[in-house]
Design a protein that fits this description.
By secondary structure, this protein is of the alpha/beta class. The protein has two domains: about 120 residues, Oxidized Rhodanese, domain 1 (3-Layer(aba) Sandwich), CATH 3.40.250; about 140 residues, Oxidized Rhodanese, domain 1 (3-Layer(aba) Sandwich). Strand 8, helix 10 and strand 9 form a beta-alpha-beta unit.
């Protein structure tokens, strides 16, 4: 299923009076003012969604910085946003859909069949010269029914089992195809452990491959064409018969990677707790520096960071 809707298609739906629920998910790490930005200008009829309080439970070391909310809490929020059964939902933000992808993934995981990201987000709407409106939108509550568990996920124990079973990203024999690969969607400097602004330890999960989400989009913040995305992921070792897992800092931008993988024709599993959960557990290994064959050969003897304990 194509996870994207472009501006021209959305405008066609609006002009034709086709019901479309628009959700503004403006959020960025270090910027708590998403609602203020929304009030100053948003797509007509778009409802603001607070990622930190509506798309996540409170932070907890054993679950990460943005744990997924319970299905019941999420259902209540979805109805509060005005979603009904059968609705088409389009989510967007002002950061190349790095935050809105969380909404896309959660609604897909809850079984909503027609949920999309506005390709290019708010920037694409502005570039098309289309109108914005100000102030709060208060929708009529919806009656949507949601399920749970419709998208594959990984828990920390699953990731640990991948490590213990042997190579995660590369085969010890070059003539063998990969069995599984774990992608780290954070910026490269965080993957390498050069900086860590928010999580307990710096570095990455042993064996993970650096695949920053910023490389999924072009300079305008639109997703690269599917063929280009497929080449990108194939260069990282992904193929149709490879099991793929994705994590980031707290499970937000990893959802963007999931959308990009879907565009490229690959199926993947999200690790919702991501590095914020993993690095909070002193019994789980963390490595720093660029990936090397020593990281992925097996059975592994991980070089742990100094905070391991």
């Amino acid at each position: 299923m194509n996870p994207l809707m472009d501006v021209s298609e959305l405008e066609r739906r609006r002009a034709g009076g086709l019901r479309t629920v628009l959700l503004d998910v403006r959020w960025a790490l270090g910027d708590p003012h998403g609602h203020d930005h929304y009030l100053k200008g948003h797509l007509p009829d778009a409802v603001f969604v607070d990622l930190a309080t509506e798309l996540a439970d409170p932070a907890a070391p054993e679950r990460g910085r943005h744990p997924l909310p319970s299905p019941r809490r999420f259902l209540e929020a979805a109805r509060r946003w005005g979603i009904n059964n059968g609705d088409v939902v389009v989510a967007y933000d002002d950061s190349a859909n790095m935050a809105a992808a969380r909404m896309w993934w959660m609604l897909r995981n809850a079984g909503l069949p027609e949920v999309y990201l506005l390709d290019g987000g708010l920037a694409a709407w502005r570039a098309a010269g289309l109108p914005l409106e100000q102030g709060e939108v208060q929708p009529v509550p919806g009656d949507v029914t949601l399920a749970d568990g419709q998208m594959p996920v990984l828990e920390a124990a699953d990731v640990t089992a991948w490590m213990e079973d042997g190579p995660v990203a590369e085969s010890a024999r070059p003539d063998r195809r990969l069995a599984r690969i774990l992608l780290d969607a954070r910026a490269g400097e965080r993957y390498r452990g050069e900086i860590e602004p928010v999580d307990p330890r710096a570095g990455h999960i042993p064996g993970a491959v650096s695949a920053p989400t910023s490389e999924n989009v072009d300079s305008a913040g639109c997703f690269l064409p599917p063929a280009e995305l497929r080449r990108r992921f194939e260069s990282l070792g992904i193929a149709d018969d490879v099991r793929v897992g994705v994590y980031c800092g707290s499970g937000v931008t990893a959802a963007h990677q999931m959308a990009a993988l879907e565009l490229a024709g690959f199926r993947a599993a999200l690790y919702p707790g991501s590095f914020s959960e993993w690095s909070s557990n002193p019994h789980l290994p963390v490595v720093t520096g660029p990936r090397s064959r020593a990281d992925v050969g097996g059975p592994p003897e991980w070089k742990l960071d100094g905070a391991q304990g």
